[in-house]
TrEMBL record:
Stretches assigned to coiled coil: none
Full protein name: Aminotransferase DegT
InterPro entries assigned: DegT/StrS_aminotransferase, PyrdxlP-dep_Trfase, PyrdxlP-dep_Trfase_major
One Pfam family this sequence matches: DegT_DnrJ_EryC1
Amino acid sequence: MPMIPVSEPLLGERESEYVAECIKTGWISSAGRFIREFEEKWAAYCGMKYGIAVSNGTTA
């Protein structure tokens, strides 16, 4: 049976560009363009007014 890596990152070209942008701009935190965009899109997807991104299920 082939092993399925659970901690190995799988980044496509677009994801790699986004990571590079975060590093270049210094936005490696819980704020910034990508977090705000994710929260807005997630809230819209869920039919809610607000969405808040957290780092893991414990902080949720």
